[in-house]
Amino acid sequence: MSHAIKRILDGNAVASRIKEQLAPRIAKLAERGVTPCLATILVGDDPSSATYVRMKGNACKRLGIKSIRVDLPASTTTEELIDAIGQLNEDKAVHGILLQHPVPHHIDERAAFEAIAIEKDVDGVTTLGFAQNAFGYADYPSCTPAAIMAILAHYELPVRGRHAVVIGRSPILGKPVSAMLLNADATVTTCHSRTENLADLVRLADIVIAAVGKPNFVQGGWIKPGAVVLDAGYNPGNVGDVDYEACLAKASAITPVPAGVGPVTIATLLKHTVDAAEKFGA
Amino acid sequence: MSHAIKRILDGNAVASRIKEQLAPRIAKLAERGVTPCLATILVGDDPSSATYVRMKGNACKRLGIKSIRVDLPASTTTEELIDAIGQLNEDKAVHGILLQHPVPHHIDERAAFEAIAIEKDVDGVTTLGFAQNAFGYADYPSCTPAAIMAILAHYELPVRGRHAVVIGRSPILGKPVSAMLLNADATVTTCHSRTENLADLVRLADIVIAAVGKPNFVQGGWIKPGAVVLDAGYNPGNVGDVDYEACLAKASAITPVPAGVGPVTIATLLKHTVDAAEKFGA
């Protein structure tokens, strides 16, 4: 029986480290008269989305980043949303633009994402931003995938040559995190709703990324002893995609929910906004 | 012992079918006074590249597609190459642009690829073209990955839910074919030079894509009985990436080299050129 110490990967610690490194950069920008500014667009009144947006706004405030919030009614059309994005693209005081996902079903979300100017796409949602990331030279990789890579790096968990199994293939999570792990020299298997024998595949993984959007989906019996488990899920009630206690029993390291990937995602968003302000700040 | 018939996947047959479907479209364009035109740029005097370019030119000619060949010396700079691409971008009579890979080492190939206008990127080499493909809505996916998908479709080999193992992660082959297989609902594992236990992973595959660029690299002992093997290799001397006889003994279906993926790649390039001429032909 192994007596290895279980490592709970502390997202708050990783986020704090990222924010500490931002503080002097923000001070330096202030000397030049530049305040980094993130504009967040929220369409409709989904309560969880409103919570995330508020959390992001508070995180900006605490760090001295300006946040602008654009609230649009649920009845907003794709064209109206694209117009609103266009105005933020034009606004020189805005360095980053975040369109809170998901938008109401009648809106063409992909078209709206594409309307974000690449130099303000701090959440890495545009098609071009995705591909730059897949080719390993993006300025702003999608924030949740980048947060997952930051946690692995912070805890010096090896990636090169390891087999990573990603459960999920969304354009803002499963696909970009698969690309980033591949670029970091992992062997990457991307699974999804059509995957057969999912449990058997996950059992092969040295690194498991849960990005499926189903509460407590990943079972303890799927985890190879000693694997690293990262839970990018954010289901209602602060529940992850991983059956935490069961997976904790098998894993060598695991992220909890809350206080795992979530806070690092927000810190990454702030970092990208500061990056953008340094590059394009007037 | 299994008596299943081995299927040799005939690339010439698939290519012929694609070209047959192009003939009436080219005739219709002619009525409008439009001749589809592919411009190919060859830098330096690599003999295999010269052969590929000649084969593509001949294939165009036989079908009534105009081909322009731009030969540049090995000493061409990145800037000069980009200038040459810019001229072809401006030329309304040119519908598709192909930069023959590889270019000499001193040239920034990625920068040159990016200089190709997206609407003329019939080989799917731009970053934006790659991402559109990864998101499932590209006009012109990279030709070799598209050829692999065309062979699977032609022979009605099932992809959904199957486990595909791709060996290779280049931006024009391994990465886009992984994306296309994923979008076709395969579970996809992408392997590469840093992969540990490669043979064990390939043994899991229902579909094996060899895109590694090493002659006879994939061994018969790596193939699960009944797997489908597609060889995208094109090594000197017309040798594939797969040890053909050994893998043939295990596979249910396999592409030979030559007369496998190669001719379908060329037919796909012609198809994309005709697509572009229909869209943008004056």
Automatic annotation (TrEMBL), chains A, B:
<dbReference type="GO" id="GO:0006164">
    <property type="term" value="P:purine nucleotide biosynthetic process"/>
</dbReference>
<dbReference type="InterPro" id="IPR000672">
    <property type="entry name" value="THF_DH/CycHdrlase"/>
</dbReference>
<keyword id="KW-0554">One-carbon metabolism</keyword>
<comment type="similarity">
    <text>Belongs to the tetrahydrofolate dehydrogenase/cyclohydrolase family.</text>
</comment>
<keyword id="KW-0368">Histidine biosynthesis</keyword>
<dbReference type="GO" id="GO:0035999">
    <property type="term" value="P:tetrahydrofolate interconversion"/>
</dbReference>
<comment type="function">
    <text>Catalyzes the oxidation of 5,10-methylenetetrahydrofolate to 5,10-methenyltetrahydrofolate and then the hydrolysis of 5,10-methenyltetrahydrofolate to 10-formyltetrahydrofolate.</text>
</comment>
<keyword id="KW-0378">Hydrolase</keyword>
<comment type="pathway">
    <text>One-carbon metabolism; tetrahydrofolate interconversion.</text>
</comment>
<dbReference type="GO" id="GO:0000105">
    <property type="term" value="P:L-histidine biosynthetic process"/>
</dbReference>
<dbReference type="Pfam" id="PF00763">
    <property type="entry name" value="THF_DHG_CYH"/>
</dbReference>
<dbReference type="Pfam" id="PF02882">
    <property type="entry name" value="THF_DHG_CYH_C"/>
</dbReference>
<comment type="subunit">
    <text>Homodimer.</text>
</comment>
<feature type="domain" description="Tetrahydrofolate dehydrogenase/cyclohydrolase catalytic">
    <location>
        <begin position="9"/>
        <end position="123"/>
    </location>
</feature>
<feature type="domain" description="Tetrahydrofolate dehydrogenase/cyclohydrolase NAD(P)-binding">
    <location>
        <begin position="142"/>
        <end position="279"/>
    </location>
</feature>
<dbReference type="GO" id="GO:0004477">
    <property type="term" value="F:methenyltetrahydrofolate cyclohydrolase activity"/>
</dbReference>
<dbReference type="InterPro" id="IPR046346">
    <property type="entry name" value="Aminoacid_DH-like_N_sf"/>
</dbReference>
<feature type="binding site">
    <location>
        <begin position="168"/>
        <end position="170"/>
    </location>
    <ligand>
        <name>NADP(+)</name>
    </ligand>
</feature>
<dbReference type="GO" id="GO:0005829">
    <property type="term" value="C:cytosol"/>
</dbReference>
<keyword id="KW-0028">Amino-acid biosynthesis</keyword>
<keyword id="KW-0658">Purine biosynthesis</keyword>
<keyword id="KW-0521">NADP</keyword>
<keyword id="KW-0511">Multifunctional enzyme</keyword>
<keyword id="KW-0560">Oxidoreductase</keyword>
<dbReference type="InterPro" id="IPR020630">
    <property type="entry name" value="THF_DH/CycHdrlase_cat_dom"/>
</dbReference>
<keyword id="KW-0486">Methionine biosynthesis</keyword>
<dbReference type="InterPro" id="IPR036291">
    <property type="entry name" value="NAD(P)-bd_dom_sf"/>
</dbReference>
<dbReference type="GO" id="GO:0009086">
    <property type="term" value="P:methionine biosynthetic process"/>
</dbReference>
<dbReference type="GO" id="GO:0004488">
    <property type="term" value="F:methylenetetrahydrofolate dehydrogenase (NADP+) activity"/>
</dbReference>
<dbReference type="InterPro" id="IPR020631">
    <property type="entry name" value="THF_DH/CycHdrlase_NAD-bd_dom"/>
</dbReference>
<protein>
    <recommendedName>
        <fullName>Bifunctional protein FolD</fullName>
        <ecNumber>1.5.1.5</ecNumber>
        <ecNumber>3.5.4.9</ecNumber>
    </recommendedName>
</protein>
